[in-house]
Write a structure and sequence with these properties.
Layout lengths: L11 H21 L9 H17 L6 H22 L3 H19 L11
Helix pairs in contact: 1-2, 1-3, 2-3, 2-4, 3-4
Length: about 120
């Protein structure tokens, strides 16, 4: 029995651009919209949604294990930039973890089951 090598190269430039872009759009939105009591808590959720959308956009033409790894890279970059911008508070660290998960989920969601078992 042999195993085939997985072609799972991650496009580093696209992952960096998507992760940084998701956080910067979130920050620009926070400055454009007045930070009221209703909008301020939604900033973290907006970062999650933008990260998932960016990961989906970057992985639109990819298949196989590279999809999840690219989503992980986008989520990690977005989480790192978010921590640099907001600091290392408890809530910021929790949102950073959720941002990494959002990157993977955004990349993988809706692609169907690809178990690799064929009949």
């Amino acid at each position: 029995m042999t195993t085939l090598p997985a072609t799972s190269r991650v496009p580093v430039g696209a992952a960096l651009l998507a992760g940084v872009g998701a956080q910067l759009v979130d920050d620009v939105t926070y400055f454009v919209l007045p930070p009221t009591a209703l909008v301020a808590p939604l900033s973290g959720l907006l970062a999650l949604v933008l990260t998932a959308a960016a990961a989906r956009f970057v992985t639109r033409d990819r298949t196989g294990p590279g999809v999840a790894r690219t989503g992980l890279a986008v989520g990690a970059v977005s989480a790192g930039v978010g921590l640099l911008v907001s600091g290392l508070g408890f809530l910021a660290i929790v949102l950073a973890g959720l941002t990494v998960l959002a990157g993977v989920a955004g990349a993988v969601a809706g692609r169907g089951v690809t178990s690799g078992l064929r009949k």
